[in-house]
Design goal:
- This protein starts with 9 loop residues before the first helix and ends with a helix.
- The protein is mostly helical and 160 residues long.
- It contains 7 helices and no strands.
- It has one domain.
- α2 crosses α3, α3 packs parallel to α5 and α5 packs antiparallel against α6.
Length: 160
């Protein structure tokens, strides 16, 4: 069934136009472009920091390519965990948004943050019980999807 709309009076039309103008003035402006730029710059800065750490490791410790990658990973995890513990990583995340979730630093933050939040409950029932509440599902789904993809690749290789 269709409903018939009644015609608005000139007074109602004016009130409607005033209301729409008020909504337009009060509605917050979109900050999507600014947030995308900040995320891009922050993610890029984290990656540049990783490159710098790798270069320093190569110069100071004469690391080969494999050791250099491990050195960068461990260093970025340590820095992200330290900044999370000090409460700085949350501030970076508030400003940078998705840019602070560059995989390795974001993962370190997702492991340390719940542990810090529940530390008052004790080591066993707080920290140890809660440490993987955020990262745990990521690990489970990541490992599961990797195993499934490996099985599919194996079956496809048998068919050839």
């Amino acid at each position: 069934m269709s409903r018939m709309k009644r015609a608005l009076s000139p007074e109602e039309k004016r009130e409607h136009a005033e209301y729409l103008a008020l909504v337009k003035r009060r509605m917050p402006r979109s900050k999507t472009l600014l947030r995308c730029i900040l995320a891009f710059l922050t993610g890029g800065a984290i990656c540049c920091l990783g490159q710098l750490i790798g270069d320093i490791g190569e110069v100071l410790f004469s690391l080969d390519e494999t050791s250099r990658g491990s050195f960068v990973s461990v260093s970025l995890i340590f820095i992200a965990a330290l900044l999370t513990g000090l409460g700085v990583y949350d501030d970076i995340g508030r400003v940078a948004g998705a840019g602070s979730v560059v995989p390795i630093t974001g993962f370190a933050n997702s492991v340390v943050a719940p542990a810090m939040e529940h530390r008052s409950e004790g080591i066993i029932t707080g920290v140890c019980a809660q440490i993987f509440t955020i990262a745990g599902p990521v690990l489970v789904y990541g490992v599961t999807s990797s195993v499934l993809l490996g099985l599919i690749a194996y079956v496809v290789s048998l068919i050839k």
